[in-house]
Write a sequence for this structure.
């Protein structure tokens, strides 16, 4: 194509279009950040903007975001569509992934803690159950609340063998107890005044006083409510004192609860070790008692939808309820709270006997499951896609993160331009952070205008040198740069850790981190949202972008880098000093990565911490790839990718979806962007389908066209 | 500087059967993916995605072995669970590698970048799915009842035979995966050097166009190579989570997939060499655990394997350059080519390089001591030692450098080269022997005996590596034109 003509088409409509889209982006972001809606009046809008701290700088940064969009469109032209499309496809993939993780969203309707209660005016029919150990204190007839006789009702079934004990609280107590067991008809079944010596020996841990009583191995004659009566022996001198009662048996209790005593459990997910998806509780009912059976949730964060059944002694279902009405919730205030709780109101029990309440989560239909999944996924994706703009401090988080990421993207774009797959940015970043942090920490008395440039320069130098090393190894020895940089990264990280742990960490510090860097060493903030700061790193970043652009497009060395990237053999024959250029490209990239480290130390964390970067260099690869290794496009792709990264954090916080989803999206982006033949593959598929009869695939096409060889 | 008892304990630990056994143990997860890297390398399709593949396999193994208890019942599940986990882990490993293969071979994606994508995918997907399954983002401990691969017990009577018992203690009670790994070395060797497909594979790696021109299906071979690398990486991954542990931990491979990319270089591109290179890494790995009890920063020994890799890369690169030069010389000189002379030069140049590289270790250790003296018992003890180590290392580098940069000097100035090589070797071997003797009853004589033996051994090694030929045979021939 004629270059002059291409320039003309570029600077015409495309320029206008890109400026327009950039302006739109500026408007859209600013509106969301400042909370402006279209229905506001101009004054209200102005008020909303001026309410934000440092609004001028915020508008400036938003304008820069618009400019980055403009540059992207202007530089990439039709490729811009592919970038957007790739991200969109990856986002759709991420949506499906999130939906997959939310397939169990409907589980919240069928799992959680619940209670069951049988409400009746009658009051509890029993006081204790098998295995209970009540206690009390006889106060004598003259006390304010006299207790001279204690009785406990329990439900027993015929044939159960019980051992009942009544004993004083203290050892060798003078209290002499008398124990009587009354049958369902009120007649005494058994009575005991004092335990025998053998019994006191056998139960010596309980029966420590001579006056203690025991009914050993009593077999119950019939089903019904029995009563244990405990009182001091009438002729005894001592009529006051604390006592304990034990009702021991191996037999299972015939009932689980009684009127007005709530009982409950947790319905859990079906795939745990001990699943509970249905719960049955038995209670003793008397003929003609009016009861209301309730099943309800009492914690506000639990949403299980309950249903309840009442089953009679003969096994017949007496009633069933799925939901509760407004009036019922008013009647049983404090118990029923929501519509999904179940209430079976005013049942008259037909006969004496043991009734069963069965509670279970209402079955969830496929439609509900689907809609719950979609709802949860939408909620998560809403947090993901709009989270970074929802509040001003989140916006600041995004911008801070983006600055680091753009620097790394630029670093990687420079080496990738020369087709050198160096992943050393991580290690260079660590050294940059270490050097700048140490300078900031140790020379706090030097004024800021000297100290900050000094720290930045040293960071760049450290990165440069750490990039020079693998560069030299690659250029002059042909050592595989990928392997060497990966190894050097680990060495740099360990070195950083070692210096941090043994030199910089203040003694007695709870965790591994340096002191705060003194103010003179920090990058000056331009936006401060209650402690979250965007610093002058924004302007440093602009300088770096311009530097990278000039380097690659306007200098001899940049020309050589591009030539090497296009065809290293050709560059060699063309007289390019390929070795020196490769080494320099890797070193310069290292300098930029070192600056990213300095930004982390001096601008974001304001001290040196362990794991200061956590694999950000790999994210830089995505940024550079999306930008086609074009320094002018990197700012936009960096902002875009950082937006997704930060959004994922908010998705994790707000919607409990793992933020790893964004890294999966990242992988998909890399695969789609690098798959050069994917587009042609799809096109060819379509063509093949069209002319299926005239098969146009050449056999030779199926042979490998040799892919770029990794240097040995 | 250090407590002598502590040093002695550590040294005794290092020269024991238990330590050798632990080397085998930690070598296994490096060796298996290294063999995978070797195969893919030899086919000319470097598989960067080993790390992610290992993670996916490790995670799959844990999940399937845990769920097989539910599926097959307690008793059957306990028996076959580990193998179900192994199988599924390996299958997933192969699938990951095939994903890479499809994107590279079908869609022409850059193999390095898609490999990076695969690593990110492996790391992220395992954590995300683990979070969904267990609600934990760190590890599966306590949530998934994973199982362990069985251990292989050798017959007990071997432990009673005097010399055999030492080896018995090394090889007894090793995981079945360790045996698989070392058997895999032989299998990979047989595959690459004795089977037609393997020979085709190497041909494809050497020159794909030439291989295609004689009718080898290049793409198919590369698919196969990547699938095999995925299989081996999958085995390594399963060993990570089920070999000794019974749980998956996020990013638990911690760079072994990347180290595996380097070992074939260190091993000269040969399966047995790769196995030995993996053992070197295993040694450093095991060492860094042992040395932890000495009071030095744990990060320092942790750096060693990575430094070793960089150095191995450099030596490999230098040797490849030298080999290419020798090949050119041979074709140029024809019958007059002195093969034995060049063999000696090459071997001795490796020695010089190795000496210099070890000295780089010393430099880095000394820098570390200067940068973080508090990790080495304070500046007043660390600085003098760091100065000594740094000075000796620098001296050794300066002495060896001329012979590395221009290998002809080894032949031209035999006496000087010999002096440098033997002196350097003497320093290292002397220290090594000294330390070894220190643990024995000869403790008091360790210094004299150690360095004496070191000098003898150094001279012997120099002579064996070609010094003898340079001193005798080489003189009888005409001097080689530079």
């Amino acid at each position: 194509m004629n270059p002059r003509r291409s320039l003309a088409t570029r600077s015409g409509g495309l320029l206008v279009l890109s400026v327009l889209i950039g302006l739109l982006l500026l408007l859209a972001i600013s509106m969301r950040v400042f909370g402006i809606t279209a229905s506001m009046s101009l004054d209200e809008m102005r008020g909303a903007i001026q309410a934000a701290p440092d609004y001028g700088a915020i508008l400036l940064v938003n304008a820069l975001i618009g400019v980055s969009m403009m540059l992207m469109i202007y530089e990439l032209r039709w490729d811009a569509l592919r970038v957007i499309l790739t991200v969109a496809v990856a986002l759709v993939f991420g949506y499906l992934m999130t939906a997959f993780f939310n397939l169990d969203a409907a589980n919240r309707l069928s799992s959680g803690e619940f209670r069951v209660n049988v409400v009746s005016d009658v009051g509890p029919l029993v006081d204790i159950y098998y295995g209970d150990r009540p206690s009390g204190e006889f106060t004598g007839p003259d006390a304010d609340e006299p207790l001279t006789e204690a009785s406990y009702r329990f439900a027993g079934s015929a044939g159960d063998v019980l051992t009942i004990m009544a004993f004083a609280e203290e050892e060798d107590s003078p209290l002499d107890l008398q124990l009587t067991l009354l049958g369902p008809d009120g007649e005494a079944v058994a009575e005991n005044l004092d335990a025998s010596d053998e019994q006191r020996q056998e139960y010596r841990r309980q029966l420590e006083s001579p006056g203690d009583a025991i009914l050993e191995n009593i077999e119950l004659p019939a089903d019904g409510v029995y009563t244990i009566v405990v009182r001091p022996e009438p002729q005894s001198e001592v009529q006051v004192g604390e006592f304990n009662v034990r009702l021991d048996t191996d037999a299972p209790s015939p009932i689980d609860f009684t009127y007005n005593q709530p009982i409950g459990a947790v319905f859990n997910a079906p795939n745990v070790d001990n699943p509970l998806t249905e719960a049955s509780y038995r209670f003793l009912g008397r003929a003609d008692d009016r009861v209301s059976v309730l099943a309800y949730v009492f914690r506000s964060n639990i949403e299980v939808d309950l249903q309840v059944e009442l089953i009679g002694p003969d096994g017949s279902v007496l009633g069933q309820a799925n939901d509760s009405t407004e009036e019922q919730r008013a009647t049983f205030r404090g118990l029923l709270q929501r519509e999904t709780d179940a209430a079976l109101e005013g049942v008259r029990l037909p006969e004496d006997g043991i009734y069963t309440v069965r509670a279970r989560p209402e079955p969830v239909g496929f439609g509900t499951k689907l809609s719950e999944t979609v709802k949860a996924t939408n909620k998560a994706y809403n947090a993901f896609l709009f989270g970074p703009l929802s509040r001003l401090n989140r916006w600041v988080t995004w911008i801070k993160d983006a600055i680091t990421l753009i620097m790394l993207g630029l670093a990687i774009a420079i080496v990738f331009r020369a087709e050198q797959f160096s992943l050393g940015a991580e290690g260079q970043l660590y050294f940059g952070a270490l050097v700048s942090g140490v300078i900031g920490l140790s020379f706090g008395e030097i004024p800021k205008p000297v100290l900050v440039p000094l720290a930045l320069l040293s960071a760049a130098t450290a990165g440069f040198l750490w990039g020079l090393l693998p560069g030299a190894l690659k250029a002059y020895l042909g050592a595989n740069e990928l392997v060497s940089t990966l190894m050097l990264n680990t060495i740099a990280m360990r070195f950083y850790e070692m210096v941090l742990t043994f030199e910089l960490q203040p003694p007695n510090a709870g965790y591994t981190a340096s002191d705060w860097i003194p103010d003179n060493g920090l990058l000056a903030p331009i936006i401060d949202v209650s402690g979250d700061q965007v610093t002058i790193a924004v302007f440093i970043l602009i300088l770096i972008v311009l530097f990278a652009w000039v380097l690659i497009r306007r200098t001899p060395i940049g020309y050589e880098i591009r030539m090497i990237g296009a065809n290293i053999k050709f560059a060699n024959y063309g007289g390019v000093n390929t070795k020196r250029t490769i080494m320099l490209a890797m070193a310069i990239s290292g300098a930029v990565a070192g600056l990213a480290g300095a930004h982390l130390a001096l601008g974001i964390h304001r001290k040196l911490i362990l794991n200061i970067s956590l694999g950000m260099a790999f994210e830089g690869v995505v940024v550079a790839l999306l930008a086609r290794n074009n320094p002018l496009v990197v700012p936009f792709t960096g902002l875009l990718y950082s937006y997704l990264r930060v959004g994922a954090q908010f998705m994790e916080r707000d919607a409990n979806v793992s933020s790893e989803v964004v890294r999966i999206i990242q992988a998909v982006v890399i695969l789609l962007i690098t798959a050069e033949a994917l587009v042609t593959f799809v096109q060819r598929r379509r063509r093949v389908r069209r002319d299926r009869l005239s098969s146009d695939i050449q056999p030779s096409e199926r042979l490998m066209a040799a892919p770029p060889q990794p240097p040995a | 500087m250090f407590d002598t008892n502590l040093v002695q304990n550590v040294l005794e630990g290092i020269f024991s059967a238990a330590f050798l056994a632990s080397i085998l143990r930690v070598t296994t997860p490096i060796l298996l993916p290294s063999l995978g890297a070797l195969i893919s390398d030899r086919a000319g399709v470097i598989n960067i995605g080993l790390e992610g593949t290992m993670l996916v396999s490790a995670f799959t193994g844990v999940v399937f072995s845990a769920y097989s208890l539910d599926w097959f019942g307690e008793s059957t599940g306990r028996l076959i669970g580990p193998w179900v986990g192994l199988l599924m882990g390996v299958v997933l490993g192969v699938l990951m590698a095939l994903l890479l293969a499809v994107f590279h071979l079908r869609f022409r994606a850059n193999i390095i970048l898609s490999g990076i994508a695969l690593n990110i995918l492996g790391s992220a997907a395992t954590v995300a799915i683990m979070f969904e399954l267990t609600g934990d983002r760190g590890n599966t401990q306590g949530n998934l009842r994973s199982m362990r691969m069985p251990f292989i017990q050798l017959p007990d009577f071997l432990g009673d035979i005097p010399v055999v018992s030492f080896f018995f203690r090394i090889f007894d009670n090793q995981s079945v995966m360790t045996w698989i790994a070392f058997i895999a070395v032989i299998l990979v060797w047989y595959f690459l050097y004795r089977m037609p497909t393997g020979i085709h594979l190497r041909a494809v790696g050497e020159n794909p166009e030439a291989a295609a021109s004689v009718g080898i299906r290049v793409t198919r071979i590369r698919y196969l190579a990547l699938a095999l690398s995925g299989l081996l990486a999958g085995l390594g991954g399963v060993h990570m989570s089920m070999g000794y542990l019974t749980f998956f931990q996020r990013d638990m491979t911690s760079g072994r997939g990347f180290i595996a990319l380097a070992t074939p270089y260190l091993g000269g591109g040969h399966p047995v060499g790769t196995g030995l290179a993996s053992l070197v890494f295993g040694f450093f790995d095991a060492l860094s655990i042992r040395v932890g009890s000495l009071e030095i920063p744990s990060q320092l020994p942790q750096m060693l394997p990575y430094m070793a890799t960089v150095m191995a890369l450099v030596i490999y690169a230098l040797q490849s350059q030298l080999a290419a030069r020798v090949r050119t010389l041979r074709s140029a000189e024809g019958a007059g080519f002195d093969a034995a002379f060049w063999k000696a030069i090459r071997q001795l140049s490796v020695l010089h390089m190795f000496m210099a590289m070890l000295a780089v270790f010393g430099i880095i250790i000394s820098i570390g001591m200067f940068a973080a003296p508090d990790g080495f018992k304070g500046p007043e003890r660390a600085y003098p030692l760091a100065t000594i180590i740094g000075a000796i290392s620098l001296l050794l580098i300066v002495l060896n450098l001329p012979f590395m940069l221009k290998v002809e000097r080894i032949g031209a100035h035999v006496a000087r080269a010999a002096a440098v090589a033997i002196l350097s070797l003497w320093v290292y071997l002397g220290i090594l022997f000294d330390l070894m003797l220190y643990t024995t009853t000869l403790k008091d004589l360790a210094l004299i005996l150690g360095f004496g033996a070191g000098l003898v051994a150094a001279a012997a090694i120099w002579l064996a590596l070609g010094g003898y030929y340079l001193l005798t045979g080489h003189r009888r021939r005409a001097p080689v034109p530079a």
Residues 392-614 of chain A form one domain. Chain A touches chain B through 53 residues (CB under 8 Å). Chain A has 19 helices and 18 strands. The longest strand of chain A covers residues 112-120.
